[in-house]
Request: fold
Amino acid sequence: RRINLRPQLRRVAYLFQDYALFPSKTVRDNIAYGLFKKQGIDKASEVQFWLDRMQLSHLANHLPAQLSGGQRQRVALARIFINQAELLLLDEPFSALDSFLKWQVASDLREELQHYPSGSIFVSHDRDEVREMVDSVVVIDEGRSYRKSKLEDFLSQPGSEAACRLSGARIFSRLIEAEDAYQAVDWQLTLPKQELKQKTGLRGVALNMQDFKLSPRPKSKLALKLFVQNAKESRSQVLLNLQLANPETEAIRYQMDLASCKREFGSIQNQEHIFLNFDRNQLWFW
Reply:
């Protein structure tokens, strides 16, 4: 089946987290190193094409130590794209970049991948990167690989605790099944089975952190009581450290607009507890 091949024959390109550029080679030579020998290929022209495409022509004779983080990233991308490999492996490619540069490079990479004729595997622990960069998702947790799903399905119903965390959930509870309901023991809530799509076999629940409301008193049928550990105000924001009734659960850090906080609570410092209001559609089960 020709799968036991030497690395240089596998037609797989790998983008390292630290880019792994050769420190003693120029930008031009680093890119040229990724080009396998092919008949009928003008190597110099091919390298120049990618120098121009990645806006690196003016840096062609520079060494990696003379480049910024974003420039080194573009050199590494040019080196893997130049050979038109059958598969690209991108291992957290933005981990070494600051937030501004990260999204600038992400935009360039996304555009290149849209025109790339072969497949790619993008490894990330960042939900915003997942939303921006991929069409389908496979979650791997403690050596277990979960089923592949389309991005929109993954974001609407993640299907496992690990997937919920990657999708942005920060509040979790174990479920105990009774005859006609589930007890969310860490939330001290009862969830009737008649309101759930899956009636049996559920083990846990998570709360999607989008579009919920914090208030001094419960304002919806489903509301979690959260204890205010502390609140730190800046000029425009309040950083809340909140805790569920079960002290063994993870603390919840939530940033709130200062004006909205004062409008809703007055002085948040005087609140022993507050309520998080949500509806059934914001719950993810597994």
User: Anything to note?
Assistant: The first helix runs from residue 27 to 33. The mean pLDDT is 88. The longest strand covers residues 222-233. The chain has eight helices and 17 strands.
